[in-house]
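Students often ask what a 'structure token' actually looks like in practice. Rather than answer in the abstract, let us consider Glycosyltransferase RgtA/B/C/D-like domain-containing protein, a protein of 626 residues. Its sequence is given first.
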Amino acid sequence: MLLKKVGKKNLPVVGIYFIFIVLLFIQYRNVYMYYDDFAYATLSYVYEVPGIKGTNFTFFQLMEFLYNHYNLWGGRVLGYLIYILLLKMGLYAIRIANVISLFLIFLFEYKIVKTTIDETNKTCWKLALFTCCLFGFFSVDTYRIGVYWYASSSTYIFGNIYLIVGSYKYWNYLKTAKKNIAEVIFIASMFFFAGWSMEQVGFGAIVVVVALTITNYIENRKIKKSSIIICLSALIGYIMLVIAPGNYKRLDTNNSATSFINKILLAMNNITNNMFSKENVLLVILISFTVIGVSILLRETKDKIKVKIAYIGLIAAPISVILTILNIFHPIIAYLYILFISIEFVIYLKDTKDSFILAYLFGAIGTQIVMIAAPYYVASAIVPFGLLWFVIASYIFRKLHEEIINRVNFNHIMNIVTMLVVGIFVCSYYTEFSGYYNNRYINEYNEKTLRMASKKAILGEDIKKVNLIPLDEKFSQSMPNNIENNPTTENGMKKYYNIPNNIIFNYTKQFDMLGGIDYYKYDCEKDILEVIGWGSITNTNSKDNKIKIELISETNEYIFDVNKVQREDVANFYNNNNYKDSGYALKLAELSKKITPGRYNINVLIENVKLDVQSIVVSGNTIDVG
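Now compare that with the structural description of the same chain:
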């Protein structure tokens, strides 16, 4: 039954998107709350609603917070409304919402391009694979700040859902003669939400909807009344976003001593310096691929002027990648390159009459033009551009297959391109997964420690400080390692975990360590725990290292001394006798009488008494007691 409904020819596409969403779920299992997330979850960012403990706030308190946020900080309150409600529901809710949002974005990007493919075309699965794998073309910084940070994704990712779904439905609506009020309301709502989501997405939404309306008028010499309503909905949403008093209060605090002209010039330089930076080289390569693709397609027209433009594109595209890698892409050259891309695409798309792609081209550029008014440029600002450009790249990929598919040699080249794109996705996914996976155990440890501190404080225990482990900030978006520099985050974390303000968060400095747990076993029947391993802080004498085993659950922590043992094998392996005394062994009988029943993580604590430094190995090994 399911096979009939899906259709045999669609099974490969369904399989690809199934794998894609599974990979997203696996990755988001490792993504936790960072930085501003705690303050937003407790309604204490910029404006603090009094009387909030954890996320126990009412709807009216949420409205109070958003109202003051609008007036004091900025207009992105629509996205934050959904974001805060998801955080209130729990970490699982915000994870699922982000996974579904990304899945829908890439699904609709595939559907947008597929609408121009003959149903019998056998390259649909290649298009689906290519489109999904484009998710791997962002930089590590962009993933951290724009995708895997919930405060940011609530506007950058959620906003693009409204834009992409709304534009897809609007495009189909323009091609039909039917008048469907419900459909108009839905499309208008999508563009209104996109307009009010965040500045880049909002401006891009206006550009896309206006471009689609104008191109439809050029083709049909008439404008539907509903089109005016839809365009106005995007504009009204954007106006609601930008007129927020908080926007201007923030602008006044950034570059206030700089003249208006210098601010514009500085912003223009920031845009190109970031877009064509080494960190974004993968995206520059993707842009280069689309330029080369359009150039190849223009050569096929045999028109002399178009062929000359095509040759310029074939030369300019690889040069842009080289300049980016060498980090010598001058802003003037960058803007000339962008202008050339726009002209080349307009010339090509004028003949194909694929107005939707033209609208996305202008929309993508629009998401960056609006940054001229921004006081600074962050890595996340590339997300709206990238998500729209992925549609353009997929479209060119599809066009190359469609128009030059009979050439055997060219087919081989396209297969190589597909494999390279898949390879980039795999490498990118592995990098992000391994980074966030390593941080996952530290996040779990910190969360258990914070919840335990909260419980002890409620019971009246005198707690002076809470020892936490710093994260690898490359994959964590500023978990406050230097807590004194992040009072907003510290305050938000204490409110979120219900910890008194007088308690100090002490982020233990981490040192390079060797070792861990070689073997562990908990015999339930005999109630005996055995742990064997070795550990040493790098380049220290293991005789000076004290080793302890920590058992930590959601609510309890127990620390046990171990017996030190010699490890000749470790010393021989590292050719360093300092590691000879790095071994340890622990055997605990009647464990259930020593600790409270529950699931415990086993960690290794190491302290060097001479240097007065300590560190921890968060192993991820667990036991169930009782």
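One point worth highlighting: Residues 2-30+74-405 form one domain. Ask yourself how you might have guessed this from the sequence alone, and why that guess would often be unreliable.
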